[in-house]
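Case study B.
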Amino acid sequence: MNDYLVQAENLHKHFGETRAVNGVDLNIKSGEIYGLVGSDGAGKTTTLRLLVGALLPNEGSVDICGYDVLKQTEQARSAVGYLSQRFSMYEDLTVLENIRFFAEVRGLSSSEWLPRSMEILDFVGLGKFKDRRAGQLSGGMKQKLGLASALVTRPRLLLLDEPTTGVDPVTRQDFWQLVIRLVSHREADTQVDKYTGKQDDTSITQTENALRTTHHAPITNYQSPITPGVSVIISTPYMDEASRCHRVGFMKNGKIIAEDTPSNLRARLNGRILELRGSPLNLLRHVAYEDAEVEDVQAFGDRLHIRVREGKAQEVIHRLMSGIGSEGGHVDELRVVPPALEDVFIALSEDKNHSIVS
Amino acid sequence: MSLPVIYVENLTRRFGDFVAVDHINFEINAGEVVGYLGPNGSGKTTTIRMLLGLLAPSEGEATVLGYDVHRQSEEVRARVGYMSQKFAIYDDLTALENLTFYGGVYGITDKNRITQTLELVGLNGHEHTLTGALSTGWRQRLSLGIALVHQPKLLFLDEPTSGVDPTARRAFWDLIYRLAESGVTIFVTTHYMDEAEYCERVGVMRDGKLLAMDTPTNLKRTVIKGDVWEVYAHPLEQGLEILHGLDGVERVGLAGDHVRVVSSKVKKEALQSLLRKNKIQVEKIERGEPTLEDVFLALAR
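Model:
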């Protein structure tokens, strides 16, 4: 038995001339949140669909919980919950009826799905809305219903394809707290008594209340609604989401070109990102572009992010300060800032000689 | 000094007992790029509909480009561009055909104008591509072109770069900045922090109220008075619970492999010793930068 819940090796998928996935390896541990990050068309969705067995690879293999997706498709698939970009629900059915539908499609009997569904609904915070029609739910609640449906078979692996597109920040925060709790869930977890701390954050409080209520109805043969050590693979174009993952793989042209923890990825650009505020921004941008040690200048509303060559930050700061002054510009602030994942993404996307990939 | 491009005073809209927009005030000047940030249902769309003269205010007033939005709504609409996420582009027409069609709707028949607009949004080379075959980033450029074909002085953008990666988003915003330099005023409604970061000023909406409007830098400074700490510890969830109970901590949240703490009083050393006392293994505690998300969550509380 190996240590990995998911092992994909040398995956290839071609659509005609297009090499949508072109040699992807993935090793995902139990309890890990892995982010597949990349441009539109980089191959993220195709990769997820290969993992779930919805597409057959032209080459390569996928193992999930020790089952070969190509040869033991049913067993492998039963270990996977999949929330697609456009997951569908029946708007004229209630929340519980929707869950029931997904459960029965996956072959669960009512003695299995009913108690489990209620616990999952409580976990995602939809317990008291179980009789509401899905069409009457807010966007965030619909998304939680999608998550609940994907969890009803008690998967070991959860695949989420851009789950928070179109969802507002408070709801996203809430959704992420659920995902993070999902992977850190332990068997026979007695979370109820632990939450006694001050709770002034609305989103966290909601989630915790939901958790607390999971224990309101003792059920014989109680089993946690969630399998311990669930792994999550999430695809996203958003860097704020990527930064919440344990590990991130950057996809480009069907390949994973860099893979590491968010902090290690950011560390690749340590000391190389400057933030410049001042006026007029145009002049600042122009002067920065002219500097030979500046690799890139990005405008952000009221400030610029400047990427400089390794070890050149102080030198560039000196030159820019005097250069901008002599051109008649004004600097409010110029300093080295911690790199954001967005800086890394842009650097990787244009990195031709792969200087920061390794 | 010329008149503000958008001037809003005590603007209010009620639907029955529900106050969708509640006495908001702001001004936007020519060439500014301003974001309007808030969750669904916070009043963003109702504000835009009033500014476009599609919905009468219950109270207060607003002028756009010097015209009263209610009494002179046709003057307003002829001079503004609107790019919506849900805007219909015809997938089975080419980029050029789509632009020609929508130009016609505005009474623009000049072929040069159409070609210039295509060039402006960087679609030359893609004129004859069927729109259905364009990627999200290119479709967004086409939508922008359609909103620009009648050369508006003010452009409303509704989540213009949702669902695209940072490279495509950046290319789009470089275009927006060029427009702003030429004097076009840009008003962006969004609920994405990534997008709001690109605006010169950002207004934060919640429950119909405009809670703040300032530069991203000033918002981060004034709203987040304390420090941001990124705490790497094991086990993480227990660490979170302990930090939750701590006095003087404004916000604690899980961020994947670490806990994010916003606090004005508690310093790194105090966090560290508290965690250690509770037998939590502390790997490291790093200072983080406040984000617009921190600002939003702090204001929205």
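Chain B touches chain A through 64 residues (CB under 8 Å). The remaining cases will be described in the next quarterly update.
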